[in-house]
Amino acid sequence: MLNILIPLLLAVSLVLGAVGAFRRIAMWRRGRPSPVNIMKGLASIPRRYLVDLHHVVERDKYIAHTHVATAGGFVASMVLAIIVHGFDLASGILGWLLLAFTAIMFVGSVLVYRRRINPPARLSKGAFQRLPKSLIAFSLGMFLTTLPAVGLMPENAGSWVFALVLVVLVAWGLSELVFGMTWGGPMKHAFAGALHLGFHRRQERFGGGRSTGLKPLDLDDRTAPLGVIKPEEFTWNQRLGFDACVQCGRCEAVCPAFAAGQPLNPKKLIQDMVAGMTTGTDAKYAGSHYPGQSGEHQIGSGGVLVARKGEALVDPDTLWSCTTCRACVEECPMMIEHVDAVVDMRRHLTLEYGDTPGKGADVLDNLIATDNPGGFSPTSRMNWAADLELPLIKDRERTEVLLWLGDGVFDMRNQRTLRALIKVLRAARVDFAVLGNDERDSGDLARRLGDEATFQSLAKRNIATLAKHQFDCIVTCDPHSFHVLKNEYGDFGGHYTVYHHSGYLDRLIGADRLSFAPAMPGTVTYHDPCYLGRYNGEYEAPRAVLKALGLNVNEMVRSGYRSRCCGGGGGAPVVDVPGKQRIPDMRMDDIRETGAEIVAVGCPQCTAMLEGVVEPRPQIKDIAELVADALTDRPDPRHKADQQEPLEVIA
Amino acid sequence: MSLPRKNPRLEWIARNRLHPDHAQVMAEQGASASPSQWMGPAGLVRRDPHRIGSIGPNGIKRIDRSGLLSSQAAASPGRQAKSEPQKPLVTIDEPAFIIAVVPDMAGGELTSHDRDVLGMARQLADADPARQGAVLAVVFGSHRETRFEHAGVDRLLHLGDERLEGYSPERRLGQLEALEREYSPERWVFPDSQLGGAELGRRLSVRLRERPATQVWQLLSRDNEWACECRGARERSDIVRTLPRCILALEECAEPVSETRHEVRAVELEGSVPEAMIRIDNLGQVAVDPASVALGEAEFILSGGNGIKNWDRFHHAAVQLRAAEGASRVAVDNGFMPRERQVGATGTWVSARVYIAVGISGAIQHLQGIERCNKVVAINRDMGCDMVKRADLAVIGDAEEILEALVALIDQKRTEEARHEAA
Amino acid sequence: MAFEAMFEPIKIGSQTIRNRVVSTAHAEVYATDGGMTSERYVKYYEEKAKGGCGLCICGGSSVVSIDSPQGWWSSVNLSTDRIIPHFQNLADAVHKHGGKIMIQITHMGRRSRWDGYDWSTLLSPSGVREPVHRSTCKTIEEEEIWRIIGDFAQAARRAKEGGLDGVELSAVHQHLVDQFWSPRVNKRTDQWGGSFENRMRFGMEVLKAVREEVGDEFVVGMRITGDEFHPDGLDHEEMKRIAAYYDATGKVDFFGVVGSGCDTHNTLANVIPNMSYPPEPFLHLAAGIKTVVSVPVIHAQNIKDPNQATRILEAGHVDLVGMTRAHIADPHLIAKIKMGQTDQIRQCVGANYCIDRQYQGLDVLCIQNGATSREYMGLPHIIEKTRGPLRKVVVVGGGPGGMEAARVSAERGHDVTLFEAKDQIGGQITTASRAPGRDQMAGITRWYQLELDRLGVDIRLNTPADEATIKDLRPDIVLLATGGAPHMTQVADWGFDEDPEKSLIVSSWDILDGKVEPAKNVLVFDTICEFSGVSVADYMADKGSRVEIVTDDIKPGAAVGGTTFPTYYRTLYEKEVIMTSDLALHKVYREGPALVAVLENEYTGQMEERVVDQVVVENGVKPSETLYYTLKPQSRNRGQMDLEALYAIEPQPCLSEPGEGFLLFRIGDCTAPRNTHAAIYDALRLCKDF
Amino acid sequence: MKRHESMASGSSGLSVAVLVSTGRHSLTGRPGRADQDARAVELALNVENSHIRLFHAGEPGEECREALRGYLGMGIDSISLIEQSADADVSAALEEILRESKPGLVLTGTQAEQGEGSGLLPYMLAESLGWSLIAGLVSIESIEGNQATILQALPRGQRRRLKVRLPAIATVDESAARARQSAFGPAQRGRIDTISHDSSTDEALAGLSIKAARVRPKRLKIVKSKSARDRFKAAAAKSEGGAGQVLSEVSAQEGAEAIFKLLQDENVLSI
Fold first, then answer.
1. GO MF annotations for this entry (chain D) (predicted)?
2. Is residue D12 part of a domain?
3. Which chain C residues are within 8 Å of D235, Cβ to Cβ?
4. What digits encode the pLDDT tens for the residues A275-288?
5. Most buried residue, A78, A167, A563, A625, by CB count within 10 Å?
């Protein structure tokens, strides 16, 4: 009986799976087009799965091992089962292999099961609570079914009842694991996830690459939608990506807004995107909600994801709570792009409705009228430096370093950082110049607030200005400008070598162009700015600079790629969505835990946010300030300077 | 004052320092009329230096060491009475022309803006001695201004009709048209202010088909012809133009009249004024949240200082009075009030109609910050403090008790009013 | 950004000034060695530049000619090329921090003393004597006029060669240039006097010669008055005409405007308005000048607060604000604004200790900041945390010495407890601030209160410390700053008794503190002649008493400085207080309901009496020493301070010596009665190394 | 008049015309919405059941269009741009347009950000059309029939309630609710319909000389005395009122009554 039923079950499930797959793909394809290379994409899946994805999964050893055992065991078992049972080729090694893999899978499944007893809050329940049982059913069923095939058990051993039990077990397992995969069960992640790896909209992320710049909108095309409000307005591969979500909740666990009690949960957001594509309701969602929200939500009238008035799946405040820190993206084993989705929807709210909340409207108006978010006169950009006699690039034929000052020029706190940086550059005799009043806001803030039009206007004008001058590289102490200049201006024809000041200072130190007095006693910790770390992968240079100063960095628990945002990114302080606590306060608690007296930072936003925490608290110092404080006048400067070779990286 | 009684013999002795009785007479004379020096029982001379000298015939303190004139002493020394010097009165009986001014009269009194505008009108009226003009002020409704004469008003047209009381631009326009018919003023001058002048001035200008000069901030005299400089484009430009007939002038457009008094001769409209078509009904002023108004702009401020012990009660009183809250520097430094509430030279300059200073002694910086307040009320324990000297009304006593009584009084009036309305 | 208006750069001539804040010219009294700028001078200005000041104009009344003696005020001497290298040091020090520095140059004419140094013959257009300096002078001759014009040009050249950014020609304070301008002084009938043009001629020739010598790039400004306030002097309209006249030449890069003349004691007090004046009392004069000139206008006079400065600048009354005394009190004023620490600014209270010392030929010091002008000695404006052991410091007494000791110790990072017997800190400052027009003194205390709160000092009010409470805290260091009490028992015949009912005399403290109500007829006997006596007389007269203030010194308030006694005199005379000198209080006795005070003439011994209701005695302070002598034997150092270390601004050796028990020091009036500055200075130099 | 009433309160709702001008940013001079006019549009958008039309009379050009897009971005479909020469007196053209389109309510800013900025235009239109005029409108509370209840701005943040007969022309005060954000999408899609119209040259304009505004500091205390000592005293003395009434030794109740009376006399108590 079994040798008829099992192949039949296999066949049926495969057919059903294929049908489901077809329907699912068709559903994804209802999104906007996004060109991909199908064959290349498909071919890349195994390597991306085994290397890139596993790289992320491996951060949690328990689940990594479990996943290898379960998923590896299943894939192998399934293939072998088709051969062994479907084509009745049980003889020899294959049957034994199948037994071995189902056994491995069984062990994995038990581990999954154990995980699901009192699971951490970040994990969704619902259908996912069933999954370990299905896994066990499949592995156990298939193991037992295979025993006779290899001759460990006599054919027709046991009663028909036993056989029936086996069939039910296998059927259960197959339905969950094979066509459940394409019909929206919890195993959907395997199917969608694999394809998502192949057709990811940021192909650069695989193989150790990095792709963090936002994709531009084509503003000249009057028919193209401005951002996203309906599920179909996402590109098809974004939709595919949402569907890949396994609801592991790692994003939720790292999201600063979620922790602060602001109404954002990246996992729920992705699930809402899925609900938008499929059922239109979050009734079946069984994970944590957006903080402060509960109950069921339906897609809004007209099929919109976000409602301006009334209700929809997503509240605008959810979108505006995001600091665009990319912690969720960094942590996602399925490599889903949460931030892109957030910004896409923000774009629609801002560009179509002018619904930027809080001080957003003022800031954008200022950027349009004065090229800086504070609304200061553009001719007063250099007021802060009247006594520094900074060389203007327009007076120079060429310069090694173009120092991009950023809007921190209007902020008295950041002026101290800039002064420190200039002191250091002068001590190292760096040939630098500034744009002066010709500089404009980089456009970062406008872009994160969804105002792509203002961003592009600023970007294009900045690029035109930069094109007039000759320089080897740009140095800035603002990671936001750094990111935009480095990663986002390229789409508009601006390609530059850009350094964050920590990176540049590291090079100067490496080239022995700076000398320091012995470090003062005291403990230091370092806070990674999101736009320097996760966005640009620069974790080492700032630490190297601190080390060169003789400072020992007491690392925070959350540092490096897992650094917690200060709360200052993505325009979050501008829109200021209320929560239960403030993100910078949480970050300051992280800092206090280290016992550090000084927290070294490398971003004007971080400085402002952390200094906003009420005293007593550790001192906040930019890396440039720490370097400037430690400088000693070099002996015999002039002589050495004359023979100074330019830094090879610059020349 | 009684006439001094004279004794020629004693006077003679007093004048004659060689007379044997001289010293005794001098002492007696002094003793009878507040002695400055006499012999004490211990045989030591006793002096009262405060009594030395007397007020001489010029009203100036005089010390007569010769003793020659001392018997004529009229009054003992004391503070000289200060009197306001009388300014010359200007009368213009037959003016060559009329400059009509329509002041805002906010609160029934000339505002400082009104005085500036009257000052400008004065310049226009007095420019040519050969052709002396008169300034005619038009006042609608009731008023309590007593110093028109010091503001440069030659003629006063007081239209006391109660229907002209309050905001009534259409009726007022009708009256001004009548004035135009009867007096044909050479120029019309309005304060360009939100209090009414800006609106009424523009209404009249278009009615008279005159293109007015608006936001005029100074008069210019060019080749014997008047010109003016105006603000344009929302404070962004200055416009120089010849002076038209209708002028809407900004604050500080001219110095107010300060050196002359004027006649304030009452005039009336002879003819009857046709009933204006009324399309706007004034439903009255609306209560606004004092917190929505910037401190520097607030109309009514309750300000607290060192003398406040219970700040909760102070805040409660401010809410009840519907007054904006201010504070002295000391109260802010001590952490009882936020920095942005600090009034004074080192904080915010305020210009309230009424400023109540509770328990504020009145540091000189604070007094500077309230210089532009119309009425200052001091509630203080210390009668000698500078705030009491500055105040228009000072109540000496326990600040909290007085505040509490005031709040209770207002509560009571409000309840009465509510009952009245309900009835 | 708050205070934006203060931070907008401005061009003066060829120079860009980084902000709108100026330390205007004042006599520092620090130049040495024939008028050369010294290290002290350089460090004093460097500190301001470091603190962010935009422009420093140094060297008030720096002389260009040898017959304008510089020695009396240790001012700078530009009559010799020897000055040039000194200027180079000064310029480098200020430029290093982004500041600009110019110097005021002048010939003081008659406004000086002749009885010393080279025994110069002073000069003036018409030989009219100057009251403030009691100086006679000769009438200047044509040849001398041309010599001095040349001296001005040479002095400007020296400033330029020394690397300074400009010169300010002083035509204010009745120096030679405005002596020519003012009809009060210039009675000449030749081409240098009479008509407007003639009176202007000397200044114009000076300006031309200077401009000729230094060229167009070097900044040349003028400091002028806005109104002399003399009936026969220059009034505001005349000054506007003068300013416009010089401005029209295009040779002047800026004008500094000061309200009031100053050739009498009374007008002199206006020039540096003390705490009794309103804020910026003479701004209208500077604003008036600004309406007629085309170049930037600087105005100083009672501008001390960033809000005030911002308001003035935003309104456009003037282009730059002078915050000179504000910088003496806190040279880091600008830096603190930029750091968002405006509440930490030590604000000038207008005590005029600085300028009143200057008029006595003493170096300029700040009543509340012991570090100012002592930068060269290594006294810090910013106290750094100690790297040594953290200690328990107990300070007893919350007067100026105690407050500064607690502040400095806490800044060092120590655990500080401050005991104060009264219900508020401040000590004698609180008493002093009760007199009319002296309330700003309390600003000193307010700053300390804010700082001590910020630093987390444990302040125990209403707590008279005794041996037990102190030792309970297990202190490492005990600092006594317990001050003293009025010294009422010096003459037994005064009839003082601890029981107020029996006592025939009252202390000035009891009156000012409100413990004793002023009576109707009062005699104040003031033998100290400092602020306290005139303050109490003023206070009582203000409350309605008839007051006679008697001193055995040469005049009441004799020891009150030159810019402050006039404001006392104005109010005392106004309130009809009788001021009597040369009489000592011999005895007080009761006669019926009245008190009789027997006074003895200092010079003849003749006695006379006053019949009054109340006799108030100001006889200074008697130190409170009880606690000290209780603790002394138990302390490690037996209460002794190492004076060599103290005066050399070095750590007390006992701090680094091992041993059990606490160290004991006493500072301020509980040692010997001196003044606020002395107490603060002692506390700073002692505690900065804890 | 009859026809107007039907326009103002008919079933089709109130017809609101907003006269908008081109603004200039105060610091950079870049073209954009004029602040008060944008507030007028905002007010119009908040009138329930209304039909809104925007008019601009002026010289068409890129800057003008860019500025007008600012209004379109508020969600307005189209603006009628009445072509006029740069030196035109636009009142005649606007009068004609308004006469034709018969709105129930006309809203516009109090003062233009460019040109003379005399704020006279709405008065001229009201006078020549014979409509009501409201100065300093802050908010519209209700519209019933041909009557509107509105709040008018007074200095120091105070408000006055008025009932006005429609049709009316209202100048909108700068303290009215701020205009909504102008969004890029609708700004790009909205139409600017050009209407040709004869220009009548504003002859007086040639007689004006216009420059950038000078700084005009507020007047400081005036001390004009001819006596040097009086000037000196006035400058150096603290401000004292002098003849104030001092109530000492009165009960708290009596003190409170005296203060209450003063507050009533000064009309600062809202009871």
1. electron transfer activity
2. yes
3. 259-260, 270, 281-282, 284-285
4. 999 999 999 999 99
5. A563
